[in-house]
Specification:
The structure is a homodimer. By secondary structure, chain A is α+β, with helices and mostly antiparallel strands. Chain A has 7 helices and 12 strands. In chain A, strands 2-10-7-12-5-4-3 form a 7-stranded antiparallel sheet. In chain A, strands 6-11-8 form a 3-stranded antiparallel sheet, with no helix packed on it. In chain A, strands 1-9 form a two-stranded antiparallel sheet.
């Protein structure tokens, strides 16, 4: 398969154009998003949905994820990633839709999966799910990156036809290290330098140093596109394109920042062999046995899903 | 001399009451601050002054400090502190009022020194000055601390009768790691645990781990007092009490965050022997030959100082 987004092959970085659509369906009145939301996703690469869950649903989701954080011993140990330099502070838990009934229902919920199907123009499956927990006081930063760059090079995701949904489980304020985005950068592919080390994911998930853009491209992106940091209350959903440049600062406030992170990929965009020089990352980071979220999983909008 | 604020002596932390005033002068119409500003400083421990410098003055100040950053080889090498883990990125330059004519005039300027004399009710001198430069992309956090705790234990500052002024030299936005404050915490003294290591300043200025409050006190402070992060344009001046709890997150944005930091201490509060177990820190971190900023340094408000 031709590699239309080569990265980590050269000692020189460059900006390549996106050759894929952003929104794969044409908008009409039956779409699960408004025309303005669809246009914003197309041009800026992200949208925020507010008040789509009831407070009961949010409460149960928070209780379930809190339980996972407090009892990591009940989880698959491979799915638990700690903060850099810590033996205790949980940074991320992967594959949460396989380890929590509430999250399993959440990812299949039509209010989320339906939007993913519309934007990606295809049946969808879960490429990755994770609980990102930036603890209070000692939460470290996530440096700038395009998720697609890693998923392409390390997992073998062929094209830009995936998106992420971040479901806020705690207030994201300006102060507790909220996700920062550079709107519009999803239309450009900033290649990275450096060979991927063996078992890179064992360190990169704690602190990413390979697969990050060069300073010059980040400075140019920030100058041209600016930086936004959507904040919100628990239950808000931030949806962003797989190639949007994003990152977050550290969190020294005592307020943890907690998000359930769900990556939907189009069935037509299933993984192939990685485009980099390493074997594929393990299953809990990148699903290789893709099964579409089918109608049996679709729970009517009126039912309390959680 | 009796130690009214003992810290780093016990394995238990506690909250001690402040036994010193915050504002040492009674306000009247001749004061260099409004009554509202004076009241805010008394109750919240900080105020922000905007538009007190002309754009020409700000421009020259930025040019002079930029020169120091670009030519650290021209500076006293002891005064230059690098970012943790870096051999190049400047984090702080100390004693800038001795190394830059523009800063020497700035610290003596009546618009700043006059406010310090009023709030501290005494002649003042410069306890410490520094350029805090949080570089873009790789600027690390400053963890929560009370400056007074360090100045008392490591430098021998007897009482809470000092204040800091942070003169913004670059835009401080919500995203580039602005200073965060917990308003009102200047009225409480959170003691710290841990013995001060020998030559602690050689590491603490890069990353502070001793002289920081315990998690429980920080959580209680944030719950009770909240967190603010004043943002502003170059030339704004943030004035805060020596005992106000403050810190800042990392900065992964490409926008550097740069502030000139000036600490005024009351002449009656000159340093004595440190209250901790180590010899005093060197002169460039804590002035021991205090000389009041005298009338000869007072430049009339109408004159262009920079």
């Amino acid at each position: 398969m031709q590699d239309v987004y080569p990265s980590r092959f050269s000692t020189r970085t460059e900006i390549l154009p996106r050759v894929d659509p952003v929104v794969y369906c044409r908008w009409d009145a039956t779409a699960p998003l408004t025309r303005a939301q669809t246009d914003q996703f197309e041009t800026e690469g992200y949208i925020v949905l507010e008040d789509i869950f009831s407070s009961d649903e949010v409460r149960q989701l928070r209780a379930d994820t809190q339980h996972m954080l407090e009892r990591p011993d009940e989880l698959d140990p491979y799915t638990v990633v700690l903060e850099p330099g810590s033996d205790n502070d949980v940074r991320s838990i992967f594959r949460i839709h396989d380890q929590s009934a509430a999250i399993a229902r959440l990812v299949a919920d039509e209010r989320l999966a339906g939007v993913a199907r519309f934007l990606l123009g295809d049946d969808v499956y879960i490429h990755q799910s994770r609980l990102n927990y930036k603890p209070g006081l000692r939460g470290k930063e996530f440096y700038w990156h395009s998720d697609f760059e890693t998923w392409h090079v390390e997992d073998g995701m062929p094209r830009m036809r995936a998106l992420s949904m971040s479901v806020l489980l705690a207030p994201n304020t300006a102060y507790n290290g909220p996700l920062m985005l550079m709107p519009g950068t999803h239309r450009k592919f900033a290649t990275c330098t450096g060979e991927t080390p063996e078992n890179h994911f064992l360190t990169s998930l704690r602190k990413q140093e390979i697969g990050v853009p060069c300073d010059q491209h980040l400075e140019a992106f920030a100058r041209e596109h600016g930086i936004v940091a959507p904040t919100g209350e628990p239950g808000s959903v931030l949806i962003f394109d797989c190639n949007l440049m994003h990152g977050s600062n550290s969190n020294i406030t005592p307020l943890p920042r907690s998000n359930a992170f769900i990556v939907y990929n189009a069935m037509q965009n299933r993984l192939v062999q990685p485009f980099g020089n390493q074997p594929p990352r393990p299953h809990h980071l990148a699903t290789r046995d893709a099964r579409p979220l089918g109608p049996v999983n679709k729970i009517p909008k009126t039912e309390n899903i959680l």
